[in-house]
Amino acid sequence: MVSGFFRKGVFAGFWLFSVVLVLAGCGAKNSQKREVSEAAADKSKNIVVFIPGVISGSPVYEMLAAGVTRAASEQPGVMVLVIEGGFNQAEWEPRVSALAASGMYDLIVSSNPSLPAIAQSVSDKFPEQKFLLLDGEILGNPHIYTLRYNQWEQAFMAGHIAALVTLAMSAEEAAGRSRIGLVAGQEYPAMNNTILPAYLAGAQSVDPSFTVDFRVVGNWFDAGTGANLAADMFRGGTSVILCIAGGANEGVVQAASEAGAKVVWFDTNGYGIRPGTVVGSSVLYQDKAAYEQTKRYLEGTLPFGQAEIVGVADGFVDFVEDDPQYIAAVSPEIREKQAELIRRIRSGDLHLGE
Ligand code: RBF
């Protein structure tokens, strides 16, 4: 079973490099080389990154793989294997379980709010296994460390820019009937209880009459459905959509550019995806989080059992406002209002969520 998903797995570039190094160490003939290889062996660690989905099209997963890989590449003897778990969510737990059962990995790294429950269940069966989970939360299991983001801040900033751009696009609708859109891959507690209400609250801080047209693709890959949903929303009078739908985002962007509508991007800087169409990027620095937490693990200081939350003040959530494509796409008046909001969040003057 394990070999089955090894075939599907994506090998990080330096995995091969590390294998070569280890093999070279084993074959060392003189004592100096043997000492080096023994020193490296002491610190050797095998890390597996389990991607619950696929990397391509999902900014959070691109950042996850990049961050872990970078931390490992800085330390000799550390090998990283990146495995894509695919879109059948029923397979994730058996797959993570098989990774733990193999006993091959010192650490399993993964990300999304459904992983803590899966890791908890696997941990009950394989209590030696350690987990580093981002974008999710569980407290008190001494084998699991989690870090999640203040997504109230992230989504509030997205709603604020979406509302400002909407008002500028449709002045005739500004009087009490304004709407912004959100296309999600699926419904889940962080979406329904945090991202969606925070997005609405951000828009309503601009104008209390804003509502959200919320649509769900039903998976994280179907760009055709993403495009159809977005086109329907644009026909219904929505001018700006926030898309959080993995590979389906591509369809939303395509439909927006055909309709002359706009998109707000989430998680990474998306201005370059369709310059002029993407008018906001509310980001989280999961690459930095993955890098720093993997480093802590390798240094032996990752506080397993704890659940940390980071936001704008910690430098892990942000709105990208210095990108030339943002500056070109959005008027100075709107950018100044958005900048003022960001200043207030950064300074602690405006406290959002958590
Ligand atoms: N986000 C993605 O970008 N791509 C995915 O494939 C993806 N799959 C998810 C699966 C589940 C079960 C859940 C709960 C969330 C998923 N997310 C995915 C959303 C992700 O965790 C995060 O909420 C968003 O990226 C917004 O930061």
Description:
This protein starts with a helix and ends in a 7-residue tail after the last helix. Strand 3, helix 6 and strand 4 (130-134) form a beta-alpha-beta unit. Helix 5 packs across helix 6 (115-125) and helix 7 (151-169) runs antiparallel to helix 13 (332-347). It is globular, with a radius of gyration of 22 Å. With 354 residues, the protein is of the alpha/beta class. The chain has 13 helices and twelve strands. Strands 2-1-3-4-5-11 form a six-stranded parallel sheet, with helices on both faces. The chain binds riboflavin (RBF).
CATH class of the largest domain: Alpha Beta
Provide the CATH topology of the largest domain: Rossmann fold
Instruction: Give the bound compounds.
Output: riboflavin
User: Could you give me the name of the CATH homologous superfamily of the largest domain?
Assistant: Response regulator
**Alpha-carbon distance between the two ends:** 41 Å
Output the structural class. alpha/beta
How much β-strand is present in the residues? 15-25%
Individual helix count: 13
**CA-based gyration radius:** 22 Å
Total count of domains: 3
CATH architecture annotation name of the largest domain? 3-Layer(aba) Sandwich
Mean pLDDT across all amino acids = 89
Order of strands across the biggest sheet? Answer: 2-1-3-4-5-11
Shape category: globular
Helix content: 40-55%
Largest sheet: 6 strands, parallel
- Give unreliable regions as ranges: 1-41
Counted beta strands: 12
Order of helices and strands: HHHEHEHEHEEHEHEHEHEEHEEHH
